[in-house]
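User: Hey, my collaborator sent me this sequence without any context and asked if I could get a structure. I don't really work with proteins. Can you help?
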Amino acid sequence: MIFVLIPVVVLAAAPDKAVFYGVPKAAATEQILMAQDLFYNKLASLNTITLEDHRDISYQEAKDGGLLPAAGIIFYISIENVNESWAFSFNGELPETGKKASYAKSYDSFYKILTEAGSSIQAVMASLVSPDAEPVKELTEGTVLKPSVEMLAGTWGGEEFIDKIVILRSGRGFVIYKNGATMNITVAIDGSTVTLTQSGRPNASFYPDIPRQIALVSAQSAQPISWTMKVTGQDNMMGTKRTLAPIYGEGGDIISAEQTEISVQWSRRSN
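Assistant: No problem. I've predicted the 3D structure and written it out in structure-token form, which is a compact way to encode the shape of the chain:
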């Protein structure tokens, strides 16, 4: 079986300055520019780096012109429509050491690139700053472990809007969001598959990436949030999360929400 293994590290170890380059002008459709701006804004919101905006020039143009910085972090994205699929990569580079990392994936829907922007950024940052990590690839061999609730009991993390996930030996647990909301969950194991499912009433605060008024309406009819995970190490899980995701209008604004699945990676935490 094939899985993505993403090391989780403290981002404070990364250089504190970064640059973000734009897509080539020939590829700059309205959709792609919207994705470019989303990635730029997410990076700019990180308090661990100071980001310079170079969206007016592509990475390749800067490289050919000898304009790439000698230090810090270089970021850029690539998106192509190939045979009705979207070939995407989010790329990072440390020019001082020559280390590079890329999160590459093929999507059947453009908006999924946007909903997985946070995990794409986290994966590349983790790979760049970990001294022993290999560059991130879409598919990497991993050994799947047969889990038990006792084995999984503890605190986990790894999602952009979630502070921690706590699994109890009773087969229950809870999710604490960074906005202060708390979700109760149940934990079930079937062979090597771990399923964690929201229990209790719907709550708009469980969808912090969706505007509040849209979330209040959408949450009432949404299916319970759930995770389908595989244990890929004593302290690592990965899989998919079924949740509401924002739908973007032509102007780049979020206009509604719909059920979708996104890729997630968790790592065990000490608290």
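In plain terms: The chain has a mean pLDDT of 84. You can pass these tokens on to your collaborator as they are.
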